[in-house]
Amino acid sequence: MRIIDLSRLLPGPMTTQLLADLGAEVVKIEEPKEGDTGRVLGKDMFARLNRNKKSLTLNLKTDQGKALLRQLLANADALVESFRPGVMDRLGFSYEEVKAINPRLVYCSLSGFGQTGPYANRAGHDIDFLALSGYFGVPSQVNDKIARPKIRLSDYAGAMYAALSLSVAMASAKERGEGQYIDAAITDAILAWTAPLVRVAHEVCEGDPDRMPFVMPDNDIFETSDGEHIAIGLFENKFWGQLVEQFSSELPALADQRFATKGGRNQHKSEVHGLLSELFRSRSFEQWNQLLEQTDLPWAPVWRDMRLFDDPHIQARGLMQSLTSSDGKEESFQVRYPVKFSAGLDDLRAGPPSKGEHTDEILANLGLADSDIAVLRDNGIV
Fold first, then answer.
1. Mean pLDDT of the chain
2. What are 348-362's pLDDT values in tens digits?
3. DSSP string, 61-129
4. Residue 63 burial (CB < 10 Å; 0-12/13-18/19+)?
5. Which InterPro entries match (predicted)?
C-alpha cells in the first residue's frame, strides 16, 4: 500500500506512522524550505512520529509542484491530509478532483472538528478537543480535580481511528476497485469515548460523584509515607478480601462489613478512600513495592521519572529501541509498534528521514532525469 502524506505535527503523522509500521509505503510531502512544522519542535518530536517514511519536498503553491503531486496520486492507494477544511480545495486537490485522477484512492481528511458543523473552520489543538468533548466533565477520582492529561490524548485517539479507518477503506478499495472519502475528526474520536460517561455522570447520576459507578474509592493512586505513589485497583471483591485479610490487623476498620462488596464500598466512598489513604501513608514507596510484590493484588508503582526504563517488565517487553539515521550521524529514541505478531513485524526498518531525503529517488521513479530534478530544485519546486 502506498500512502501520500500531506499531514504535519502530531495526529496525521502518527496516523501514517502506524500504517508505515504495519508495512505501508508512506511518502511524506514537505514544504521545501521549512519542511514539516514538527521538525521545528525538535528532532525527538519529529523522529517518534516519522520513522519508516520517505520524504519528498514539493512546493504545492506552484503549478509544477501540483503536477508532480498529481502524478504521485495516480498510482497511490491513499492520501492523508490534516489541513483545515477548504485548504485542499484551494490547492486544487479536493476529493472530487483527486477522485478524477485515481478513482481507487482512499482520501482521508483528519481535522480537529471535522469537515462539517459550525466549528469546522476553527483553529484547535488537543486541549480544545478534550474540552469540547466533555472529557473534563467525567470525574475519575474521589477527590477529583480538573487537569489536562499528561499526553495528547485526543490527538492520539484521532490518529488511531484514522489509521484503522484507512486500513479498512484501503482493503475495501482493493477488493471493489473503488476508493472513498474519510472525514476523521479528532473531536469525534475522543467524543466516542467521553459521551457515554458524560451522560451517565450528569443525566443518570445528576452530577453527584458518589453515585457515579466509575468513581471508585478502591481504584486510585495513593501517596506513600515518603511522598511517592502507588496505584491500586481493587475492582473485584476478591481483591478487596485479600487486602482486608492482609492489613485489617493494623487497620481494623478495613474489615467493616459495609465495605465487603463493591456496591457497599461505592456507597461509602469517602470512608473507604480515607482508610486506603491512611494505609498507604503507613509505609514508604520501597516498602510497599516489596510487600505488594508478594501478593496477587492489582497494583503498580507510579513511575514519574527515568526509573520507568529500569522496570524489569518494561525492559523485558523490548519496546524501547533506537534507530540510526540513513547518514549514520544521528540516533533517535523509538518505541516499537506496541503489538507483537507471531510472524514478526519489521517496524524499525528505517529511521526518520531528513527533509527531502528521497526526493531524487521518488522523482526518478516518475521518469524525471537528474537534470530535470536539478532544474526543479533550482526553481524552488522541490
1. 96
2. 999 999 999 999 999
3. TSHHHHHHHHHHHHT-SEEEE-SPTTHHHHHT--HHHHHHH-TT-EEEEEESS-SSSTTTT----HHHH
4. exposed
5. CoA-transferase_III, CoA-Trfase_fam_III, CoA-Trfase_III_dom3_sf, CoA-Trfase_III_dom_1_sf
Question: All 3 cell numbers of residue 139?
Answer: 470525574
Superfamily of domain 219-312: formyl-coa transferase, domain 3 (3.30.1540.10)
DSSP SS3 for 209: helix
Contact status, residue 297 vs residue 234, Cβ threshold 8 Å: yes
- Sheet arrangement for strand 53-57: 53-57, 25-30, 2-5, 78-81, 106-111, 181-185
244-253: buried (b, 16+ CB within 10 Å) or exposed (e) per residue? beebeeeeee
E-strand stretches of 124-252: 181-185, 219-223, 229-233
d(CA 126, CA 152): 6
Q: Where are the domains of the chain?
A: 2-194+319-378, 219-312
% pLDDT > 70, the chain: 100
pLDDT at residue 44 greater than cutoff 80: yes
Per-residue pLDDT tens over the stretch 91-113: 999 999 999 999 999 999 999 99
Give buried/exposed letters for 220-237 (b at 16+ CB in 10 A, else e).
bebebeeebbbebebeee
Tell me the pLDDT tens digit for each residue of 124-163: 999 999 999 999 999 989 988 888 999 999 999 999 999 9
CATH code of domain 2-194+319-378: 3.40.50.10540
70, 82, 87, 24: which is closest to 51 by C-alpha?
24
Reduced DSSP (H G I as helix, E B as strand, rest coil) percent helix, strand, coil of the chain, to 5: 45, 15, 40
